[in-house]
Amino acid sequence: MIYGERVRLRAIEREDLPLFTAWLNDPEVHAYLDLIFPFSLAEEERWFENMLSSPPAEHPLVIEVSEGTAWTPVGNCALGKIDWRNRSAAVGIFIGEKRYWNKGYGGDALRLLLRHGFETLNLNRVYLRVYETNLRGIRAYEKVGFVHEGRFREAEFRGGKALNVLYMSVLRSEWEARQAQ
After folding, report:
1. How many structural domains comprise the chain?
2. How many CB atoms lie within 10 A of CB 37?
């Protein structure tokens, strides 16, 4: 497990799948994810089996929040598309439990994931793509050090509209400089 002050990241277990399915079928939760169809538990189970055969470094992690002596699952995150030669990876994250939105848990989890990526996996660059309408996500990414790199104009069709997709990244040197402050 990867521990922070308010959150921890742990491996996904089969027992987490019904919770993930509920989150992914909530229109408010999946509004900023690359999902457009309802998601069944059977599909989530198939995803889980496929995930187990992928490289361990790319396995998603459950985000849990400390509540006294208990830990509550609130979302998940992952480093994916790892390019070992160029030492880069894409990051994905979401908080599925809406009562934990706007409390900084996503940023805390992202900081832990970046620490894991830079210190354990020896990555040099972590990047992401985000819909321009995801203002809460963009603010969180900027707060942890992601820098805007580019905009793919009208690259995604969501909710009857073509949306711009923003690309952001953080370099190891930038992350290290923030840690030294």
Report:
1. 1
2. 8
Report the relative pairing of strands 88-95 and 2-3 from DSSP bridges.
unpaired
- The tokens describing 157, both together, are 């069709």
What's the CA gap between 120 and 118, in Å, rounded?
A: 6
Tell me the residue range of the domain where 125 lies.
2-180
Q: Is the pLDDT of residue 153 over 90?
A: yes
**Rounded-to-integer distance, Cα 48 and Cα 31, Å:** 22
For residue 14, the SS3 value is helix
pLDDT tens per residue across span 21-48: 999 999 999 888 888 888 899 999 999 9
Q: Which tokens in the block code for residue 34? A: 């690359």
Collapsing DSSP to helix, strand or coil, 134 comes out as coil
Residue 46 burial by Cβ neighbours in a 10 Å radius (0-12, 13-18, 19+):
exposed
Q: Tell which residue, 50, 68, 69, 38, has the closest CA to residue 12.
A: 50
C-alpha to C-alpha distances, 5 to 14, 106, 143, 172, nearest whole angstrom: 26, 13, 17, 22
Q: What is the CATH number of the domain that holds 53?
A: 3.40.630.30
